[in-house]
């Protein structure tokens, strides 16, 4: 790989019908104040979770596991390495292995005190080391060896989203990707759906619902943004081909994934109406400032939101360098980007992105 700093920005305009796919603690759709008005919001955590689920479902074998139940998970790997070990001894060995590595384990629950992100290859290598050193696994001299295993060979979602370990910061992994909270390009108001559920076995002389309630929702056109420090991702994965594949999968998952909150109620299965990729050498750039002045319309928000997003790209060149490459997909009625290439399909956008990265890395 070259010594260049390479950043990839992903921007999307996506409209949602009535929905509530990311709720706060009271069940209301999440919102945010921006530009002096209330906006719909979908948290970065919700969409990163959806992206990780997309990774696991659509072809990525090298994805990690985020769980408190790391003792049981490692014990399964230990039994795969040495089936002669009893299940009870495997659990004990797994517990001691993590404790030696610097993690605090709840003795009663046999679980970590907080969620821990571990890759499948890391777990397998850790199990092999545990079996090999089972007689002295608690010896402090093994700590560095075990920690090096937990730092090596990160799966793509660990490399992209990072890992934070309060028990021992030396096990932290920096994220090579950043995902913004999606916000609506316009002001929104929360609405209420009053619903009733009928009892199929109600006697004929008893009218009325078996259940009544309300669900909050809103509808919105979202601006979504994420970026990848491709040079950092390549350093973590230590493989150019794996890096390009991971970037392509991330773009695909970013575009096609969706948080699933209340999706059975609202069936809000939409895709982005506009998508833009920028590859840069200087720094990542969000275009959310295009919507600080909220879009106002009684004829829909997609066209003006898309036009504003593309126009904002040009405005940013007062401060930053022009991207090495700009690729985009847009609605027919929207203006394009004069310095960019309009793609006829999502597949073509992925191919051209991969070709450019292969030429750079």
Model description:
With 361 residues, this protein is an alpha+beta fold. It has 2 domains: 7-59 and 177-360, no CATH class; 65-154. It is built from 11 helices and 14 strands. Strands 1, 2, 3, 8, 9, 10, 11, 12, 13 and 14 form a 10-stranded mixed sheet that branches. Strands 4-7 form a two-stranded antiparallel ribbon. It has a two-stranded antiparallel sheet with strand order 5-6. Helix 2 packs across helix 3 and helix 2 crosses helix 4. It starts with 6 loop residues before the first strand and ends with a helix. The mean pLDDT is 94.
Task: Give a quick rundown of the structure.
The protein is of the alpha+beta class and about 350 residues long. It contains eleven helices and 14 strands. About 35% of the residues lie in helices and about 20% in strands.
Structural class: alpha+beta
Succession of helices and strands: EEEHEHHEEEHHHEEEEHHHEHEEH
**Count of individual domains:** 2
In percent terms, what proportion of residues is strand?
A: 15-25%
Largest sheet composition? 10 strands, mixed
Q: Count of DSSP helices?
A: 11
Overall geometric form: flat
Instruction: Give the strand tally.
Output: 14
Low-confidence stretches: none
Main attributes of the structure:
about 350 residues; alpha+beta; ten-stranded mixed beta sheet; two-stranded antiparallel ribbon; 11 helices
């Amino acid at each position: 790989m070259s010594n260049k700093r390479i950043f990839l920005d992903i921007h999307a305009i996506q409209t949602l019908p009535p929905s509530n796919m990311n709720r706060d603690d009271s069940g209301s759709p999440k919102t945010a104040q921006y530009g002096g008005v209330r906006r719909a919001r979908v948290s970065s955590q919700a969409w990163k979770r959806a992206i990780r689920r997309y990774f696991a479902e659509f072809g990525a074998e090298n994805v990690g596991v985020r769980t408190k139940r790391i003792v049981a998970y490692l014990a399964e790997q230990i039994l795969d390495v040495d089936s002669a070990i009893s299940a009870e001894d495997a659990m004990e060995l797994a517990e001691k292995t993590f404790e030696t590595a610097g993690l605090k384990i709840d003795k009663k629950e046999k679980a970590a005190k907080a969620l821990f992100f571990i890759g499948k290859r890391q777990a397998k290598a850790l199990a092999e080391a545990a079996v090999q050193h089972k007689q002295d696994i608690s010896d402090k001299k093994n700590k560095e060896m075990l920690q090096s295993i937990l730092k090596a060979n990160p799966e793509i979602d660990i490399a992209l989203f990072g890992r934070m370990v309060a028990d021992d910061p030396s096990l932290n992994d920096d994220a090579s990707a950043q995902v913004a909270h999606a916000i609506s390009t316009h002001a929104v108001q929360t609405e209420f759906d009053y619903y009733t559920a009928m009892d199929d076995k109600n006697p004929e002389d008893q009218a009325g619902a078996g259940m009544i309630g309300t669900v909050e929702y809103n509808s919105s056109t979202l601006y979504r943004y994420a970026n990848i420090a491709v040079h950092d991702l390549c350093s973590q994965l230590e493989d150019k081909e794996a890096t390009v594949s991971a970037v392509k999968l991330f773009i695909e998952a970013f575009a096609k994934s969706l948080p699933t909150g209340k999706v059975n109620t609202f069936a809000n299965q939409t895709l982005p109406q506009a998508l833009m990729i920028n590859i840069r050498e200087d720094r990542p750039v969000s275009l959310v400032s295009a919507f600080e002045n909220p879009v106002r319309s009684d004829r829909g928000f997609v066209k003006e939101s898309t036009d504003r997003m593309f126009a904002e790209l040009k405005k940013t060149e007062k401060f930053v360098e022009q991207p090495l490459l700009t690729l985009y997909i847009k609605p027919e009625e929207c203006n394009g980007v004069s310095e960019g290439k309009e793609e006829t399909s999502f597949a073509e956008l992925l191919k051209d992105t991969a070709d450019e990265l292969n030429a750079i890395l």
